[in-house]
Amino acid sequence: MTVFQPVQQSRGDHDSSGTALELPTPYLLFVGDVRERGYAKTAFGLKDWAPDKCIGECASDPQAVTTGLPRMTPAEAASRGTRSLVVAVANSGGYIPPAWQPMLVEALEAGLDIISGMHVRLADLPGLAEAAWRNGRRLIDVRTPPANIPVATGRKRSGRRLLTVGTDCALGKKYTALAIAAAFARRGIDADFRATGQTGIMIAGGGIPMDAVVADFEAGAAELLSPDAAAGHWDVIEGQGSLLHPAYAGVSLGLLHGSQPDVFVVCHEPGRRVLLGEEEFAVPRVEEIVELTIALGRRTNPAIRCGGVSFNTSDLDETEASRLMAEEEARLGLPVADPIRGGPAFDRLIDRCLG
């Protein structure tokens, strides 16, 4: 068996399939030594949105964050039918530290392939390619954009588009997009979820990892991801970063211009005071992001509008979450809902997006 399996297909016709994946499932989710939930968002995303593909989790540190799945060794997972270990971390810089590598070698020796969405290529890690070759296993890098991405044109495309944007990173843009796409489908609306990050791509089976695209082609990649479509079709596009994040705003802006959203939904985590990974910067107010997104988004879609606000209320109880969302809805004059909690508030958000 060839160690390195290409998981990317060139798309000379520039359709919307993105990176085509045939990943070996089920997964063992590797969380390394990460103790901050935000940096383990790949693990939580796969566990929440592809639970049938996840058998358990493993870690290099017993104090690492847990998804709630059974913790097991690679050998134990292999004995239960697991076919691959997923590096299920999204840390700043997308690197794999030396302390994680013994567990990756252990997984290869247990008969598992390794899947990674990190920026670093698995084959570049010392000894990993040799271990994969020795055990006849594959090293699969998901964070690989398609070839021949065009420069953006700014041309208005047919069909309709919704983009999730955020006040910060790792607070629910992917979850919100998945929930909205599912809600559209329940209403009989023709809609597709368009993945722009490694976790979304693993869930959806295709997409483009926007933060791995050369900057000049970022907006072009977004156009490629969401091409012309029927008038009633919706592409629900997973957002990345934040327009006011000092490290990742470039990805957010390219995605905004290229996706040309008719509607955007602002994602926010109440109680988060500082930006993830940039603690000297305060989290911007929701209304700042609404105003900025409209101002910048008008460049490629003059009719852009805000459909509402998605709150991540996972740290609040039901009563407190409901009270806060009702207060913010009255203050902002926009629907405010937690898509995971659902209910009438989320229905109002969907109504506003479609209206």
Topology (elements, then pairings):
Blueprint (H helix, E strand, L loop, with lengths): L26 E4 L10 H9 L4 E5 L15 H6 L4 E4 L13 H9 L3 E4 L11 H8 L3 E3 L18 E7 L6 H14 L4 E4 L3 H7 L13 H8 L8 E4 L11 H11 L3 E6 L5 E2 L2 E5 L3 H12 L7 E7 L6 H15 L3 E2 L5 H12 L1
Parallel strand pairs: 1-2, 1-3, 3-4, 4-5, 6-8, 6-9, 7-8, 9-12, 12-13
Antiparallel strand pairs: 10-11
Organism: Sphingomonas horti
Pfam families: DUF1611 (PF07755), DUF1611_N (PF17396)
Protein name: DUF1611 domain-containing protein
Structure description:
This is DUF1611 domain-containing protein. InterPro entries: DgcN-like, DgcN-like_C, DgcN-like_N, P-loop_NTPase. Residues 65-145 form the D-glutamate N-acetyltransferase-like N-terminal domain. This protein has 355 residues and is of the alpha/beta class. It has two domains: 27-141, NAD(P)-binding Rossmann-like Domain (Rossmann fold, 3-Layer(aba) Sandwich); 160-354, P-loop containing nucleotide triphosphate hydrolases (Rossmann fold, 3-Layer(aba) Sandwich). The protein contains eleven helices and 13 strands. The protein has helices at residues 41-49, 74-79, 101-109, 128-135, 173-186, 198-204, 218-225, 249-259, 286-297, 318-332, 343-354, and strands at 27-30, 54-58, 84-87, 113-116, 139-141, 160-166, 191-194, 234-237, 263-268, 274-275, 278-282, 305-311, 336-337. The strands form three sheets. A six-stranded parallel sheet has the order 7-8-6-9-12-13, sandwiched between helices. Strands 2-1-3-4-5 form a five-stranded parallel sheet, sandwiched between helices. Strands 10-11 form a two-stranded antiparallel sheet. A hairpin with a 2-residue loop joins strand 10 (274-275) and strand 11. Helix 1 (41-49) packs parallel to helix 6, helix 3 (101-109) packs parallel to helix 4 and helix 7 (218-225) packs across helix 8. The N and C termini lie far apart (52 Å). The relative contact order is 0.13. The model is unreliable at 1-17 (pLDDT under 50).
